[in-house]
Amino acid sequence: MTVFKGHKIQVNQLLEAIPNSLLINLSSSTNVDRYAKVLHGTKMFYLLLYGIIENEKLSQRTLEDSFSDPVFKLLFDLDKTETVSRSSISERLSKIDSNFFRQIYECIYEQFSKTYSESDRNKYNLIRVDSTIVTDTAGKMAEGIGNNGKKAVKFSVALDNHLPCELKAFTSSSYCSEDIALPEVILNHVKKESNHQNIYVLDRGLQSTRTMNDFNKKSIKFICRAKENRKYEEQKSLIAADTKTDLDDSILIKDSIVKLYTGVSINNKKGNIHYREELVENEFRLVVIKSKSLEGNEFWFLSNNFELSAEEIATLYRKRWDIEVFFRFLKQELNVSHLVSLNKNGMEVMMYMTLIVAMLVLIYKKANNVGYKTAKRRFSMEVRNLAIALIVMQCGGNPDLFFKT
Fold first, then answer.
1. Residue 152 in contact with residue 132, Cβ under 8 Å?
2. 3-state SS, one letter per residue, for 135-167
């Protein structure tokens, strides 16, 4: 099998990180195989894994073809005589226990996250949190967030220093606002990590003072981009005579302890509800920098971390761009921009499987020091080469014996 020059890790090593024993144990501890005749949980896992890796545009039809591919069945040691239809795949995605795939994802994440030594990590354990919207152009989704007359699903993801560590799919219109979606993802992640020292980095989607106040109460450190000219009351300036204000590519304009306003609902005499602005008691950090390269552009950052310097806050926020690159990778290379299932359960299954493949490719990318596109292309090539090697061994050098019907 071809090995790319200079590569430190190969695909077969990564696939060994998903032992069949793990799939069997999870199959018995979940309801994934209830009422299943052919597409048991393990087979669905292998089919979706192979389908995402091998197809440029994934669909139920391409999954049907993949299941009939003798190379796929040999690669994962499946019965060559079994067949499935597109409708069977569609129905299975809508009803299969998504918890089975979530647990596989979490087991693989835990295993891979441990492969990084402390020296590989940044000084601060950053968790970038953001969302991406996928719209169904046919408008056939049973439920979805309204988006210019079409229905859409919102996938909110948390990305740690290296890998996607939390996922949530939203189809309810109440989650249109990032002020509702992002805090739920963060709180779910916090529950998994007791005594964590994470710093959660978010874009301008989070603006709710109530949410920031809640983060304070729960000792959740965050950095977010604030809207310019947001209303606040300055309590104290942190810029002293010896404070560095001339940064590498920007100028520090403000670094202050502030109190923020929030709207408090009031019932008037007629029974109508209106909102009155009030200051919250908790104090926050407001950092304002002015770009040297983008003339006139100011960037406002809010945080509840008073230990970092203003320059560090600005630098850590810039690392949020990593999640934008990650979303682009998911959409362009791993088919996330196309909905294989229009059912929320199926969407969750597909997203967990996509993140599993993403982790495999990211580990491959980092270990072999290549780019996203190169990693995905070479990963696929190694999968095919692995299958070819198995075919050669099984048929004793005569491939006609293997493909004989």
1. no
2. EECCCCCCCCEEECCEEEEEEEEEECCCCEEEE
CA atoms within 13 A on the CB side of 209: 20
End-to-end CA distance of the chain: 26
Cα 381–371–364 angle (5° rounding)? 55
Residue 93 to residues 302, 383, 387, Cα–Cα distance (Å): 41, 24, 26
Contact criterion met (CB below 8 Å) for 175 and 181 = yes
Got the DSSP string for 285-348? EEEEEEESSSTT-EEEEEES--SS-HHHHHHHHHTTHHHHHHHHHHHHHS-TTS-S-SSHHHHH
Number of C-alpha atoms within 13 angstroms, CB side, residue 173? 8
**Tokens read off for 130:** 């953001």
Question: Looking at residue 18, what DSSP letter applies?
Answer: S
**What pLDDT was estimated at residue 115?**
67
86-100, 263-277, 336-350 — which is least confidently predicted? Answer: 263-277
CB neighbour list of residue 156: distance below 8 Å, 6 or more residues apart: 129, 130, 131, 167, 168, 169, 170, 181, 182, 184, 185
pLDDT tens digits for range 201-248: 999 889 999 999 999 999 999 999 999 889 999 999 999 988 889 988
User: What amino acid is encoded at 82 in this protein?
Assistant: E
- Output Rg (C-alpha) for the chain, integer angstroms: 25
Q: Select from 55, 98, 133 the least CA-distant residue to 141.
A: 133
Q: Which H helix or E strand runs over 182?
A: helix 178-192
pLDDT average, residue stretch 294-309: 91
> CA 51 to CA 45: how far, in whole Å?
10
Query: Cα dist. 126→163, 281, 299, 322, 391 in Å?
Result: 11, 27, 20, 11, 44
Tell me if residue 74 falls in helix, strand or coil.
helix
* Model-wide pTM > 0.85: yes
User: What is the rounded distance in angstroms from the CA atom of residue 185 to the CA atom of residue 114?
Assistant: 22
Q: Cβ(168)–Cβ(156) under 8 Å?
A: yes
Q: How far is CA 160 from the centre of its chain?
A: 9
Which amino acid is residue 48, in one-letter code?
L
